[in-house]
Amino acid sequence: MWPGMGRDRLTRGLVLRLCLLLTSLCVCVHIYLELGSRRGAPSHLILGCPTQTSQVLPDKGARTRGTKDPLEPNFGTEDRAIKRMVSYVRTLKNDSVAGKTGGGANPSTCCPPLRPKRKSPRWHIELEPWASDSHSLEEEARRFLHYITTPQVSCAPPSPEGPLVLQGQEGPKGPWAVCLDRRYSLAQRIHTKHCRVYSLGLGVEDKTLERSLARVGCEVHCFDPSLKQAHLQESDMWLHRLSVDWRDPNPAIPAQRQHGNTKKLATILNDFGHRQVDVLKVDMESAEWKILENLVLEGVLSSVGQLLLEVHLHWAGFEVGGDDPSVVRYWFSLLKELERAHFRLFRYHNDPAKPRLFLHRNFLNASSTYTLGWINNEWRP
Fold first, then answer.
1. Is 335 strand, coil or helix?
2. Which segments carry the region annotation Disordered (predicted)?
3. Range list of H helices, 153-206
4. Which of 81, 155, 247, 280 lies deepest, with the highest CB count within 10 Å?
5. What are the pLDDT digits (tens) for 59-100?
């Protein structure tokens, strides 16, 4: 009786161990199949690194990477997965630092390093420190007025054999003038008939400068929302029924549908297929501050060679809020952003016939309107 009981116990132990082994094997197979179905790619491409097996399959007739017999199961799924993964690897290789510098990837590693993170978009400008601890309007105004009336670079007059001297209707001392100094590119661009001019206005400003630039061969685009036709060519200039704003209208909002002819400058450049503008003239009757802010935040200024800007100081401007010292600090900070974008002031003009108003008051004998000429000293068209 005792020997029989020992054999039964031994048999039950072996059966129990066999059952545990089979259960473990089934669990492993299930996990493997589950992971394979979720990833949808062969095991040798799971990490995004094609191996020698994926490149050449000698037992299938030396097939190239990414091909599979159409008679095999899941042909379409695996083929698409391989194409997606191989494309991903090639993208990384092209965008890697080694690829850009001309060197290859490290042979000891499978895949090149990931591309660096892009800079996050800017949502606001950086305000400059206050002019004084007291945050007074007088100190802010003195700093601002001194800044816009102190040219940072000189602009030599063009040589006699150069292009036509381009001025506004008041002659050499008029409000609008471009820099034709041969140290910069505009004179050469005019000579080769490759210059492009954008004039942003509301249809009432002087167009003498634009006509002069058009006569010497520049491609001139004037934007006027009051035109009856969408696009019109007149006196060697293109007139467009568009107004430049600091935002694009939302067609889903009924109140903004009527402003369908209003767009951001970046949108207009993209629609026209223009990458560079030699001269950008802005006379937007107090909308210039928010438009300039948009140009700074969206990086449009890098496509501009010269910026001719009329600023209005008799009030804060459209959608510019805060008390008077904060408004002037904001104006100053915007112009300092121009300087960070490699623009330098080469000219300023104020019309003595304009009212002497600064934020609704006669302050420091400041004019209500100044015309500023800025040149991008690192612009290479």
1. helix
2. 56-75, 96-115
3. 186-191
4. 280
5. 434 443 444 443 344 444 444 443 333 322 232 333 333 333
